[in-house]
Amino acid sequence: MLSSNIKGVTSGFPLRIEAEKVVEKQVELNAAFLKNMFTKIEWKPFVDASQAMGYAELPDEAEPSMLKFDEFLQKFHHALLELHLEEGALVCPETGRRFPVNKGIPNMLLHEDEV
């Protein structure tokens, strides 16, 4: 997940999502990949990001034992791999600085005074 690298920012993660357009793209489920990724994800920011993109099916808390349930794997898979922020912005939680997202690509370039 991306974070704000503005000079002086101490809490630039997680960036808040302002979604204008979200696209869903079908991806084949790979349980082994999901189980590996689960340990690398900070769950609360992930749930918040999913909700900001209109997907509210994830539980507020999760633990590795939930990965043995197909229903949980499907929901995790959908949020992680099938939701794409096409248009909108990523917002620094400390400064409120908006990083625009156009055609699915975030522009994280900093202004001269932010470096």
How is this structure best summarized?
The protein is an alpha+beta fold.
Key features of this structure:
115 residues, alpha+beta, Trm112, protein heterodimerization activity, Trm112-like, 27% helix
Q: Mind explaining what this structure looks like?
A:
InterPro entries: Trm112, Trm112-like. It comes from Escallonia herrerae. Belongs to the TRM112 family. Interacts with TRM9. One of its GO terms (molecular function) is protein heterodimerization activity. The protein is an alpha+beta fold and 115 residues long. Helices cover 27% and strands 22% of the residues. It has three helices and four strands; from the N terminus they run βαααβββ. The chain has helices spanning 31-38, 43-52, 70-82, and strands spanning 16-24, 83-91, 98-102, 105-106. Strands 1-2-3-4 form a four-stranded antiparallel β-sheet. A hairpin with a 6-residue loop joins β2 and β3. The longest helix has 13 residues, at 70-82. The radius of gyration is 15 Å and the shape is globular. The protein starts with 15 loop residues before the first strand and ends in a 9-residue tail after the last strand. The model has no long low-confidence stretch (mean pLDDT 95).
Radius of gyration, in Å, reads 15 Å
**Secondary-structure element series:** EHHHEEE
Low-confidence stretches: none
pLDDT averaged residue by residue: 95
* Anisotropy-based shape: globular
- Contiguous helical run count: 3
Estimate what percentage of residues fall within beta strands.
15-25%
Q: Report the helical percentage.
A: 25-40%
Distance between the termini: 20 Å
Largest sheet: 4 strands, antiparallel
In order across it, which strands form the biggest sheet? 1-2-3-4
Q: Specify the structural class.
A: alpha+beta
Subunit structure: Interacts with TRM9.
Pfam families: Trm112p
InterPro entries: Trm112, Trm112-like
GO molecular function, one term: protein heterodimerization activity
